[in-house]
Amino acid sequence: MALILALALAGCAAPRPKVEGFRDAGAGLYSNAVLDPARIAGDWVQVAAFAAPNAAACAPGRVSLAPAAGGYDADVALCLPPGRAEFRGRAEMPVPGRITLSGADPQGVGEPWWIVWVDVDYRTMAIATPSGRFGFILNRDGRLPQDRLTAAREVFDWGGYDLTKLRLLGG
């Protein structure tokens, strides 16, 4: 009897939010509001990205952020679904931990980037999107140590990302 009652009540429960892209939209997601915007300037190598299991292989991307009045001059070439995404122009951080690429396709690479984690020495940075359409890991060079990969994975997992879809890029 108790089992029947439990099953009946489960049928009345609210359905889980629809998963868009690589993230459960019902999971919490927060950007890093305490990071130092000046310390993310410089050159980054894309070392991992979320991708569909049948997605074509993609070479590591890159992001360069040069300080400019009120933001950055950005040069971006990333491996994102459905393939290579490029942008060159103005990047701004309207609130700490959130980057917008001015004039970029808001349904593509121009979707707001949320910095969900950066290590204490600003060597590795995890970027997510609230929609979950993409997420990626940047590193100052192409060698991502296991401890920082583990930390980034934990943050993505907490944010509702499907870690089975996180693919390391390059060697």
From TrEMBL:
InterPro entries xrefs: Calycin (IPR012674), Lipocln_cytosolic_FA-bd_dom (IPR000566)
Pfam family, one: Lipocalin_2
Domain Lipocalin/cytosolic fatty-acid binding: 109-167
Protein name from the UniProt record: Lipocalin
Organism: Aliigemmobacter aestuarii
